[in-house]
Every structure is written in structure tokens, then in C-alpha cells.
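Hi V.,

You were right to ask for the full record rather than a summary. Here it is.
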Amino acid sequence: MRAVTVNPEAKTVTAQGGCIWEDVDAAAGTYGLTTVGGTVKPHRRRWPHSRRGLWLALRPIITTSASEKHNLFWAIRGVATSFTFRAHEQKDPVFAGTMTFTPHKIPAAVALANRLAEAGSGQAGFVLGFAVAPPPVSQPTLMSVIFHNGPQAEAEAFFKPLFDLEPVMNTTAMIPYPHLNAMLNPPSSLPVRAEFMLTLFDNFAGFVREVPDASGSLLLFEFFNQDKICQTSNRAMAFANRDFYGNVMAGPKWHDEANDGRCRQWARDVTDLLRREMEAVKIAGQVKVGNGRRGPVFGEKGLDDLWSELCNERLVELKWKYDPKNLFSKGLLLAPQKDA
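Predicted structure:
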């Protein structure tokens, strides 16, 4: 399920559902192409996902589109065994790499990340988080991964405020595009509060000190400009996951099975901290939502309520048309009873 087929004449790339972006980029890069970005798997985005739209076709059994078998197209976008992507030329290298900073730079780095998420044009991306620095430092540190699709001078000018924070380590350079999405192969709301990031750093540092076996763990926030993504309505597909927020990856990594419970509990604890932060910010009304509006996260509703409001009516209609016996019942409960 990881085969990739490239048609350089038609500028399309077909990838099976088990592919990671490294597979797609390696195949497309042979022809100087790259694919559109987007959320194909809910846990993984790609660079540069925020600059272009998303085009999918399901093959080989059925071909569906907005005008052909449109209900299936609406429901299936985001769930498929293979995808055919429209490809774009990407022959030039990109500017990307990793930088690490001492923890006292967290407030300045977070403020900068929030500004870049607002100001970006889709040409740049910024991931900010925590990791344990390699030897001889071997201490929890602030880490950023940056990307810019353009000349090095232009990239360095865009990220100059970040470079001015004097990174302890800096691996940024011009690299082939296929290497980009392999850099992190091991949701948070925007803007992110610096105080909250400091709390998370203390949590992360305490965890890796308590469990040295988990020193390869990561806690990362992504910062992308979402304007292009949010030009498409959430009502356009069953996967109603377009809004002004980024992803968070809490990635515990350990070797000794004796640490299974503690490491998994840390990931649950981080998720709980994020949930509580989102609720606090929701009450304060500090987050950009809804295609550019300013307001509380999800309005006054929870995530399930918002998703239900956007999609439930059409999903219920399709549910009773194609699955009246409720064979597929995992996940959100769509109409437990149907009126006679």
C-alpha cells in the first residue's frame, strides 16, 4: 500500500493509502514535481500545504467528483485507499532545517511564530516545539523546524527575527524538496500563548528527566498561514477540518516496555493540558476561527457540536439512504433512531 505512480505528461501522482510523504516526494522529485498539500491522514500534514488547493480522485473501481456521484465524493474525501494528486513543478531546492534555542527564548520565539502564521503567504512554514538536544548537551531544548520555498537570501530575510534569537544549533540550508517532508518522520489553536508554552516546556523537561529512556521524545507545534486552506468551506466535504489552527504532535519515544504506561500517560496528560488551554482561550475569545473571523474557539460550541452543525444534516440523510441498518457505526452517532 505504498506504491507511487507518476505521470509526468499529465502532471499527476497516484499514491496508495499507506504512503508517507517521503514516498510521494521521492517519486515526484525524480521528474521535478511536487504534489499539492493538505491533510490526507489526520495526524500528518506536509509542506507546502498552505499554498495550493486539494484535488482528489478515487480509483480504480469508481471515479467520483463534484459533478459525478457527488454524494460519494463529498463523503469520501479524506478516506480512500489511493489518491491521485495534481502535481506542480518544483525543480528548485528549498530553504529548510532545524534550529535549537535555550529555553529562556521561548516567549520571544512564540511571539514570532504567531506573527509568522499571520504574515505568511504560503511560501513558508514554521514548527516550534521541544526535544532533547543531542550529546554533549543532552538537555531539553526549544526546537524549531523552518521551511521557505524560495531563494536563500529571501528565506533568511523572512526568518531574520528567528535567526536574531541566536540559535544554539542551526542546520538550515538549501536542500532538495524531496528531503523536506522526511525531516519530521518520527490540534492547537492560534495564536499560542507564550505562558502556556513555558508550562508545556516544564512538563516536557520533567518527563524526560523522570524517564531518561524517553529522551528521544518530541512535543511540536506547527505554525502555517491557513488563508488558502480556509477558502474552501467545511461544508464542501464530510471531513470538516478547515480552520485557523495548527497541529500539535506529542510524540513519546522509548525502548523499555517497563515505561509503556508512564510514556503513554504523559501523552494523555499533554492532550489534557491542550484541551484545557483551548477551553480557556475559548472563554477569553482570543482565537481566529471561521474563515478569518475573530472569536472564541468553535464559537460557543464544542468540537463535536460544530462538526455536527456543519455536516450532520447531510450525513444523516446519506446514512439512512446507504446504511439504513447502521452497519458502519464507529465514531459519531448519527441519528440513533429514525422517526416512522
